[in-house]
Design goal:
The chain starts with 13 loop residues before the first helix and ends with a helix. It folds into three domains: 171 residues; 155 residues, Histidine kinase-like ATPase, C-terminal domain (Heat Shock Protein 90, 2-Layer Sandwich), CATH 3.30.565; 173 residues, no CATH class. The chain has 21 helices and 13 strands. Strand 6 and strand 7 form a beta hairpin. It is 50% helix and 16% strand. With 544 residues, it is an alpha+beta fold.
Length: 544
């Protein structure tokens, strides 16, 4: 610990000083290509907020150690934290130098050198964050009570580590590419997409959108692709980043991902309900010259186009202003081929991801003992409690999060809640790891005019929702699911009003057009009042 910090002027260039060996024989086109690749990589890293999350977490640990008088441990941890902060300061300065060089159209050699220095700094910082030295944090947490902030926020910290592991993997793979190592793999595209969403995309979307964006995994049909798997991942991630950015102004965003077979081609679709694009913007993204000086959105799409071409695929975009965008990637498959074992980075193969899963399992076991029984006083005041959580939240953007279930006989059979915390983004998985995909979930947040608004989200996993509601296998179908969610939305609205939430609070729903098709009260521009939703007839009432 406490090793001397290397000054930015002494950071090694990647590939062992390769830049110093550049000669006049290297053409301008070669340099341009290398600059493009380093720009693509830096654009894809998106690591700043996750490094900040790690630092904030360790600051929280140090504060808790002080609050609970664990003085010796606090001193040791404080030294580690100071080194981490110093490295983060160096990283920020180098990124500023790189950004300035790009914006001022400095010579390619200058941009390349600064870009590589920044990537090297990120690599070192990620290695430090994932170093076993930080494993003793768990020992420190053993001195703290379960209600301490650092113990409760540990799952969010682990999510940040998962992302940082992915960043480290991308940098190492980038190095392998530059060294012309064999990167050909045969992989199951649907399995790759599902794993990548679980291990990388979910954490990014939660962090970037403050958990306002809902991820929906649609049909996933297995098929084998052949090529550079990590480059495929980065291409897919760019599509997700663009979709999340397009939904930045949405209180409720929906990111839908699917992969289907059409003949001998695999069709990947990434859909969002964001701001959409005019036709000229779509044409620019698909056909414009490969400029490296434009906005990040365009830069990322240059990489998407190149990667799709590397896989001998085709790319299309369908977009409507204020309705959203669907990007379709059609790739040829290896008919009759089998996927080969995937190559993984050390941090993916070792204990990190296993530990994250263990944290969730432990959380589920402990959470099962905390769910209040039907008729509990909490259930009689759930509307009041959710609003009180919002009012007492000390987060920069105050809010509350909850999950709730209301049965056909108007009984609350599930309810859990928490205010937004100051230092980390709470997700429904943190709140109710046992049922977060099987229940209706909600948030109360400030709207654009700083008035509270209610967001309700349909159950994320259809199968788990059917199981939670004990629907017989033979009765499970899409129409049944829509009908059940329709009625539960209404029952929850009635229950929230009945138990203390203002009937005039504005509401936004996921899948409102699907769940309430043709409904004049709800099909207009959102939001509408909670009272309006509560007054809608249930399916059984509509038939009377």
């Amino acid at each position: 610990m406490g090793s001397a910090l290397r000054g930015e002027d002494h950071l090694p260039d990647m590939a062992g000083g390769r830049l110093e060996r550049l000669t006049m024989s290297q053409t301008e086109e070669d340099l341009k290509r290398e600059v493009a690749e380093i720009k693509f990589l830096i654009h894809d890293l998106r690591v700043e907020s996750f490094i900040n999350e790690v630092i904030h977490y360790h600051v929280t640990v140090n504060t808790d150690l002080e609050i609970y008088n664990v003085e010796q441990a606090q001193a040791l941890h404080g030294e580690d934290l100071q080194e981490l902060k110093q490295k983060a300061v160096v990283k920020r300065k180098i990124f500023q130098d790189y950004s300035t060089a790009v914006k001022s159209t400095s010579p390619y050699q200058t941009i390349l050198k600064l870009g590589e220095k920044y990537v090297e700094t990120i690599h070192d910082l990620c290695e430090m964050v994932l170093d076993p030295r930080w494993g003793r944090v768990d020992q420190l947490l053993s001195f703290l009570p379960p209600e301490s902030r650092s113990v409760r926020s540990r799952p969010q910290y682990m999510n940040a580590l998962r992302w940082i592991c992915g960043v480290l993997t991308r940098i190492r793979h980038f190095r392998e590419e530059r060294n012309n190592e064999d990167l050909y793999e045969q992989f199951d595209v649907s399995k790759e997409l599902q794993d990548f969403v679980k291990n990388v995309i979910y954490g990014y979307v939660t962090m970037k959108s403050r958990a306002r964006v809902e991820i929906q995994i649609d049909k996933m049909e297995p098929a084998v692709l052949a090529g550079n798997r990590y480059r495929f991942r980065r291409m897919f991630f760019n599509l997700v980043m663009n979709a999340v950015d397009a939904m930045s102004d949405k209180m409720v965003g929906i990111l839908n991902i699917s992969n289907e077979l059409e003949g001998e081609r695999s069709i990947l679709r990434v859909r969002d309900n964001g701001s959409g694009m005019p036709p000229e913007k779509v044409e620019q993204l698909l056909k414009d010259r490969e400029s490296l000086d434009g906005e990040l959105h365009s830069l990322g799409f240059v990489f998407v186009r190149r990667t799709v071409a590397d896989f001998n695929g085709e790319l299309s975009i369908n977009s409507k202003i204020d309705k959203g965008t669907t990007v379709t990637v059609s790739l040829p498959i290896k008919v009759g081929a089998e996927a080969l074992p995937a190559k993984h980075a050390d941090c993916e193969d070792l204990d990190l991801l296993h530990e994250i899963d263990q944290v969730r399992l432990q959380g589920r076991a402990s959470f099962a003992t905390k769910v209040a029984a039907p008729g509990d006083v909490l259930h009689d005041k759930c509307g009041e409690i959710v609003y009180a959580d919002y009012m007492t939240s000390d987060a920069q953007f105050p809010g509350s999060i909850f999950a709730i279930g209301v049965t056909e006989d108007n009984k609350v059979d599930f309810f859990t809640h928490r205010p937004y915390e100051r230092y980390w983004n709470i997700t429904h998985e943190d709140l109710s790891p046992m049922f977060y995909e099987a229940t209706v979930r909600g948030r109360v947040e400030e709207d654009e005019d700083q008035t509270p608004a209610l967001i309700l989200k349909a159950p994320q996993n259809v199968r788990e929702y059917f199981e939670f509601r004990e629907v017989p296998e033979a009765e499970r179908n899409a129409a049944k699911h829509v009908a059940m969610v329709h009625d539960e939305y209404i029952r929850i609205a009635r229950k929230l009003v009945e138990t203390g939430m203002s009937p005039q609070i504005e509401v936004r729903l996921t899948d409102v057009q699907k769940i309430f098709p043709g409904n004049e009260d709800l099909s207009g521009p959102e939001p509408f009042s909670l009272e309006t939703l509560a007054k809608q007839p249930l399916n059984s009432e509509a038939k009377l």
